[in-house]
Amino acid sequence: MSTWGAAPRRPDARGILPTSFCGLEPVVQQEAIDAVLLVVSELVTNAVRHAGGPSCSLHLSACPEAIAVAVSDASHLLPQPRTPDVLGEGGGFGWSMVCQMADAVAVTDEAGGKTVSALIPRHRSDMRMEARATVVSR
User: pTM (2 decimals)?
Assistant: First the structure.
């Protein structure tokens, strides 16, 4: 689907990603597209904010049941759940939200950093909001 060598700016991602789903069969439901946009936004934002490297990469792929999102960066630090900051701009919402929206989430430690992957169901009947387990591999 799409790969960027550097983090896309939010307007770019919101404009490019929906067109990536055109022509896929079966058709991707709007709820799934919205979920992928949100997961991409969170994972890219986290990579830019916490990785400390000059860039990150985004890779999307599709199968009949799901859309796979993978964001790679130069950091070996694993994502950490945090208590959300409801009074300021300290964040803390994104990682738990990604884990809830995805059927599976994995963090793979690699020689040049890490890749965070999330598998988003394509069909509304498959979209569940209960907590998901996080898999970390080294």
Answer: 0.76
